[in-house]
histidine kinase (Massilia horti), 317 residues
Amino acid sequence: MYQSWTLAKGGAAKALVAGAVRLVAAGAACFVAARIAALRRDTERLQAEAVERKKALTACRAQAFRCARAQRRSERALGEQQAQVAYLNRAVILGELCGAIAHELNQPLAAILANAQAARRCLARDPADQSLLEPILDDIVEADRHAAAVIHHLHLLFLHGEAQLRPLEINAVVGQALQLARCALDAQAVQVHVSLGTGLPPVRGDSVQLQQVLLNLVVNACQAMRATPPETRQLAIQTETGTGNTVRVSVADRGPGIAADALERIFEPFFTTRPQGLGFGLSVSRAIIDAHGGQVEAANDGREGAVFRITLPPAGG
């Protein structure tokens, strides 16, 4: 009896254990199934997010490409606009010098006419004095070459093209600029003192653009000295070697100088102290010098007047 009860009790325990195992297994299966379902949902969510992020990344790349393309267009348009402003500034300078340039051309043309009339008189003699014709013809040729050089120089300044950077002798650039401005300086009784350094290293630049900068400074100096007595109107131009084998050009006048508040803004676009000034001559000059890898600064001379200093790197620098 006891043995039967024991066996029955053992069978029940086994059944209970088996049931418990089945319950645990079923619970574990449900838990695993739930976790798998959750992981599947998470995976699907992450995959959807990855797809959305990929789409967003693709859109961002397309937007970045469009922005970069628009930036390149803007930079190209800005460069073209700056070139146009520089060209207009050159035209304004030449417009202000047109009277002096006309006088510069009138001199060789008048010499050609006078020599041609002298040659005609020589030929009208009987017999013709051939010995006088050769120097007369030489003078005509020289005057014609001078007029042609002035016209060629003006043509180069009026050309609207890309900058041509090449090694240049800065003293030659200064001389060419002064040749154009000479009659304007004479007309305003400005005494010019030129001190050209020797053994200067060549600079890499565009001759026309650098002449434009110098003409800007010379014209501004002449206008600054209009109110000063003629005997005190002096312009000093100096070239020298600077630190680091750089080349320095200084343009100093004996005008009233630059006011302290104007000195801080002198190179800003559209800032001018002249009633009829356009206000972009000096800003264009700074842009040109910056494009040449140089610097330009303005200051008041220790004695009187203003001085502009241009520093350019050497051609091999």
